[in-house]
Design goal:
Length: 273
């Protein structure tokens, strides 16, 4: 069974209730926000069943819905179509731009496949279907034939440091030609910024929004005064002058040349330049 058009998008609580929902509404889509229909602490298995009955399309970045056996089972048994961000570290404007860029591909998936559907959305708006008509899609025949190892479920949703080493490719079979082909897209542009974010960036870039740093302190802190005196008396060493907290001032190192940075030590060796 395919969902009827026009589609209604259900924005899960993990995506917030402003940027993604606002961007979709500006694009002319029907949108339902989690907290407008359910309690904030509603269980995923409960709202998944309700969303499935109403034929809404779920947008989320909660990886547990796909990796947790109970929640995944509820999603599939409730005939839900769910599109999940492949990255969980994206901010609101980024998520909004990603889903807007993915809208044509998500629509194509919804028109082609029967529910339940589970698909991931990349940062550039790409869509990969994992489940369609409730069945896990199998890798291409050539991949299986060559014995190319596939990452475990949820591999790309993990932080990069926790993914571990990628499985090595099997050695080529006797008589098989070995060839590497690299394709690079030079014309691909990132998704457009959400209008609200673009306006905010333009506002911050305006000359009147610049932060002006005074060249002379009007009412400096006592430690700043003591540090300045100590630095004036200090002899340069390796291009810097320094003072230490043992002298009753800040522990800092600064270049005597204008334009070079001042480095607070904060008494922690790992913070020292």
């Amino acid at each position: 069974m395919k969902l009827a058009e026009p589609y209604t998008f259900f924005v899960d609580r993990s995506l917030g209730g402003a940027f993604v929902a606002g961007a979709l509404r500006e694009a002319g889509r029907s949108v339902i926000v989690h907290d407008d229909e359910f309690e904030p602490d509603a269980r995923d298995v409960d709202w998944l069943q309700a969303v499935g009955k109403r034929g809404w399309v779920v947008l989320t970045k909660d990886a547990r819905i796909r990796t947790n056996a109970i929640e995944r089972g509820t999603l599939l048994s409730s005939n839900v179509a769910a599109f999940m961000l492949g990255r969980g570290d994206m901010k609101g404007p980024q998520m909004a731009a990603t889903f807007i860029a993915a809208l044509p591909r998500m629509t194509k998936v919804l028109r082609r496949w029967d529910v339940p559907i589970v698909a991931t959305v990349t940062a550039l708006g790409g869509v990969s279907v994992l489940y369609a008509n409730g069945v896990r899609l199998q890798p291409a025949k050539l991949v299986r034939k060559l014995g190319i190892p596939l990452p475990p479920q949820g591999y790309w949703l993990r932080p990069e440091k926790r993914r571990g080493d990628r499985p090595a490719l099997p050695p080529p079979k006797p008589g098989m030609e070995t060839r590497w082909e690299v394709r690079v897209s030079v014309n691909e542009e990132p998704p457009p910024l959400a209008p609200e974010l673009a306006a905010r960036l333009a506002e911050e870039a305006a000359p009147e929004a610049a932060i002006v740093v005074p060249t002379e302190l009007v009412s400096p802190h006592r430690l700043a005064v003591l540090s300045a005196k100590a630095l004036r008396k200090a002899k340069p060493y390796e291009g810097f002058v320094a003072c230490h907290s043992s002298e009753g001032c800040l522990s800092i190192r600064v270049a005597p040349v204008v334009g070079r940075p001042c480095h607070p030590h904060h008494e922690h060796p790992s913070l020292r330049p």
